[in-house]
Amino acid sequence: MRQHLPILPVVVTLGGALLIPIVALGARRVAAPLACVTAGLAAVTAALALADAVASGPLRYAVGGWASPWGIEVVVDGLSGFVAVAIASVATVVLTASGPAVRAGYGPAGPLFYTLALLVLLGLLGMVVSGDLFNVFVFLEVSSIASYALVASAGGRALAAAFRYVVLGTVGASFYLLGVGFLYAATGTLNMADVARLAAGVSASPLLAGGAVFVAVGLAIKMGLFPLHAWLPDAYTHAPAPVVSFLAPVATKAAAYVLARSLLQVIGQADVPVAAAVAWAGGAAVLFGGVMAARQTDARRLLAYSSVSQVGYIAVGLGLGNAPGVAGAYLHILNHALMKAALFVAVGAVAARGGGVAVGALGREMPVTAACAVVAALSMVGVPPAGGFFSKWYLLEGSLAAGEPVLAAVLLAGSLLGAVYMYRLTERVWFAGAERRERGEAPAPVVAGLVVLAVASVAVGVASAPIVARVLGPALPALD
Amino acid sequence: MDAPSLLPALALAPSAAAAILIVALRRRPAARDAVSVAAALAQTAVVAAMAPPALRGAPPVWAAIDLVPGVPLMLRADALGVLFALVASALWVLTTIYSIGYVRALREPSQTRYFAAFALCLLATVGIALSANLLTFFCFFEVLTVATYPLVVHAGTPEATRAGRVYLAYTLGGGTALLAAVVWTHALAGTLDFVPGGIAALAAAGPGTLWALLALFVIGCGVKAAIVPLHTWLPLAMIAPTPVSALLHAVAVVKAGVFGLARVVGHVFGPAPLHALGADTALVWIAVATIVGGSLAALPQDNLKRLLAFSTVSQLSYVVLGLAVGAPQAFAGALLHLASHALLKITLFFCAGAIHVAAHVDAISAMRGVGRRMPLTMGAFAVAAAMLAGLPPGAAFASKWQLLGGAASAGAWAGVAALLASTVLTIAYFAPIVVRAFAPDGGEDGDGGHGGEAPASLVVPLLLTAAAGVALGLAPDGLARIESLARAAAHAVGAGR
Prior knowledge:
The structure holds two protein chains of two kinds.
Chain A: H1 8-26, H2 31-56, E1 59-62, E2 73-76, H3 78-97, H4 99-103, H5 110-129, H6 133-152, H7 157-187, H8 192-199, H9 206-223, H10 231-238, H11 241-265, H12 274-295, H13 299-320, H14 323-355, H15 362-365, H16 367-381, H17 387-401, H18 405-430, H19 444-462, H20 464-472
Antiparallel strand pairs in A: 1-2
Helix pairs in contact in A: 1-2, 1-5, 2-3, 2-5, 3-5, 3-11, 3-14, 3-19, 5-6, 5-11, 6-7, 6-11, 7-8, 7-9, 7-10, 9-11, 10-11, 10-13, 11-13, 11-14, 12-13, 12-18, 13-14, 13-17, 13-18, 14-16, 14-17, 14-19, 16-18, 16-19, 17-18, 17-19
Chain B: E1 3-4, H1 7-24, H2 29-49, H3 51-56, E2 60-68, E3 71-76, H4 79-106, H5 111-130, H6 134-152, H7 158-189, H8 207-225, H9 233-236, H10 242-269, H11 271-277, H12 279-298, H13 304-325, H14 328-359, H15 370-373, H16 375-389, H17 395-409, H18 413-437, H19 456-474, H20 482-496
Parallel strand pairs in B: 1-2
Antiparallel strand pairs in B: 2-3
Helix pairs in contact in B: 1-2, 1-5, 2-4, 4-5, 4-10, 4-14, 4-19, 4-20, 5-6, 5-10, 6-7, 6-10, 7-8, 8-10, 10-13, 10-14, 12-13, 12-18, 13-14, 13-17, 13-18, 14-16, 14-17, 14-19, 14-20, 16-18, 16-19, 17-18, 17-19
């Protein structure tokens, strides 16, 4: 069993996704607990694999016994394991917390929602643990197609948003596939480690340069990196509440991870300044997303633009490419997932109380929900000891170490913009408005999920130094 | 030599526990308020216990987990830190008793949130005081920013919301500048530890870099220290309940900014390198502008709390002036003034709150006759105001004397002139209040409200702080060895390099 550990999270999730439609024929109510247990098992197996990788070096698993470079390879090291654990555990919490909203009919019917959600999770986990460029594409499509369906399930304006999502997502996937084709033509292999090894010999090849650019553009679309983010705000605004709470924290993260790995291993060796472009696009995203978020009146649209901004932070770190920058990017993948999950779940809980998404005077009726949302907001602004502060610290260190004080200034300006838009949300949630509406606290699973997310936001901040030193550090480029 | 010890961590424990217990006991106000008082007493006791080792030169040190690799969450109770922590904790005890009387007399809403936020503020303040490196300092500095916000907007009115927005905009902006400075320091020096006399590796950087870095630090700490032109939030924040203004906007928050400047001058840059850079002169001029500007702005105020706020702006820069001059005598005088201004200004705010509760008067123009109805309160006010102006033998006389001596011997004549001018101005803005309050009743300026003195829980704390102000003036070292702590801190900085 132990040697199969790297592939287990994917297999478990696939099993759950196949089982739910069958079981749901007889008992529809089983779908929700089954999905949560499946996601939880995926998180646990991913955590075990990560622990193993941290203790005894990267785990490499040849699918079907076919050794690389011919077979498909699955790799769990400190980086991929970390992202897999982040995605699977946040997905578990969010799926649990969105139970009441799904039962109340705020999204697609239970079995459909949970099946699609697990398919998305399957695709994301597959992208993360895969050590094979083409295999990444396969999983990318699995997760994308399932997310298109989820977004579209609300009908109405969500259909238009989903259509845009499909078109841009397909363009992104095509770019990526084209790039992989170029890389294959240049190096003759699809295994990432192999491509990395062989690319050194052909670094001047235009094929390699073209491949690097196409892969980067494709992944940038998928992770919603400015100026290729156009699908994101509409999709997050109009999709059903439980769908957004599930997609927003995790959906862009796997693409960000693949971009990170490609930059480190493959693209970085090409004779084109892709990394610098990613860093500066990230800087532009931080400012653009922040300014747009500060101008929104709809809570979910505000959070969607905030995602554009926060994805920018991740891109800055990846583009910088030095140890503190990349460490900050990985930490921010986890931190942003936690805070964005908490905020979308909280906003969804308010919407479910009949208040629409315009919140007000929530503090008195839903104190725990509001307190958790405030913690997430503080993490977003980057107030210590919340996790968001520490990812920003590493990103700032990375910018200065790379001799890019302008990027550091952009990151700090982004924090201030974050303070502006989070203030707009929080001040009204917690303090404004004296009118009392008897609504009461959100349902227990929602509150429990929010508490877990808020506590985790702070815990990740407090534990960030060991995470960087022990988990991420060994896999990073020369951490001093 | 540093002495590893649990004491610095224990100093944070009471307020941390109190913040949790206060929320847990929200349905039992009596128990909740008892927790507040007990926590304040416990915190003061632990901090006081750290004074002797700090004076012996063996500060208790406690290090926890790493915040980032190589920079631990670390507390060191040196003389400078203990001085500030002691002032804040001891005054928290009195403010808590005062607060309980105040919020009950006015039937304030959200008392649980109020006391919990108060405890968090004190946790952050003592954390700031005891931080052993810049990153720990920054973390507590930001926690203080956030924890103060609910207290500023406590009233829930649109005016309070606006004040809270301005407060957050200034302090988060300052925090961002401070973060930039801290990260940059780490990149330049490779360390963030506070070193008496300055971080040696920092001096290797070019003058342009050092100027820019200092500017970021001064902006970062200067917002809380209310130096001109970063002071605008402070008069607006007077919308908060009076005990908040008393402890946070005269002692904890604003002094955290001044204390941060003391750390930056004494333990990051070092007075000698700053002098070599010529930056001490620039800081002196900022302080001079703030001292005179604050006093002038206080003159026309009619709202008593706003007047006190502008007076605070002015007085805080006495401390900044002493730090900027940097010579040991001036540095010690600055720290002594940190303590004496805290005692005196909190007395004045306590008086303003007592008048608000008992006579329902906030405007100076309506205070005619208040002194005859509330002789104890207004008597304390008059004594504290006189001492704050620098009349001997008050607390501020001792500190001002040292500041003057230090500034004169360093040749900072602009500073000397500002201190003297401010003395005259301080008398000019306080004297009319006292005169009016003790004037006969029934003038056409308005009546002095009704009733007699405020409840004992308001009057006793303000009498105690006024008496402590006198004591500190008569025997600066008799009161909790404040003067020794100030001298030891200044000596450590001076001897560092």
